[in-house]
Amino acid sequence: MRIISGKYKNKKIILPKDKLTRPLRDQVKESIFNIILHSNLLKIDLRNSKVLDLFSGSGSFGLECLSRYAKNIVFCENYKPTLNVLKKNIDNLDCWEQIEIIEENIFKVLKENKYFKSKFDIIFLDPPFKEVRVIQLLDDIKKNHLIEKNGIIILHRSSKDKESFSKNTEVIIEKTYGLSKIFFLRI
Questions:
Q1: Quick one: pLDDT at residue 97?
Q2: Which CATH architecture has domain 26-186?
């Protein structure tokens, strides 16, 4: 896996060795960034954006945002083996000054809402495919006012699953790539 574009282009991303972590494939990541950069349906300027990467794993999405000149990234990950890989990837890019890591359970983080100093332009939400509390996560993001007015939530799910969202969630774009389904949402 690698950084696709920007100031860290072609830098390698270390992946976790265990089977519990499912990294975002380069092809899917590249498609997501093409949509962010070129879709008329989104009003997002990736440059200088604030990004929240929930269930961040190796940090592939957030680090790609940083490479493309996002202002800062907040990673939220608490699975220790993956957290160590995330930190190594940040070390390898030497980009700590623009990064914060929250090493807590994401449901706890969103319930307590004491970790966030500002709203985000992009929230990337990549829970395990077996996680069924997606609507709760979206509701907590909305309740805590974590997203900017024109901000987007990008949700990565299994293409095999049928996702249903609450009535106040707008699906802007939905794309399927093999085993992955990507939703661009506004709440």
A1: 96
A2: 3-Layer(aba) Sandwich (3.40)
Asked if residue 23 has pLDDT above 80, the reply is no
Q: For residue range 114-141, list pLDDT tens digits in order.
A: 888 899 999 999 999 999 999 999 999 9
Instruction: Give strand pairing partners of 72.
Output: 50
Decide if pLDDT at 113 tops 90: no
Instruction: Pick the closest to residue 163 from 124, 137, 140 (CA basis).
Output: 137
The ranges assigned to domains in the chain are 26-186
Yes or no: say if 6 and 69 are a contact pair by the CB < 8 Å rule.
yes
Q: Are 64 and 4 in contact (CB under 8 A)?
A: yes
Tens digit of pLDDT for each residue in 35-47? 999 999 998 999 9
Contact 167, 143 (CB under 8 A): no
- DSSP code of residue 117: S
Distance CA(96)–CA(120), nearest Å, equals 19
| Residue 76 to residue 79: CA distance in whole angstroms | 10
* Alpha carbon distance 104, 68 (integer Å): 27
Four-point Cα dihedral 105, 108, 114, 115, nearest 10: 20
The owner of tokens 């395990």 is 128
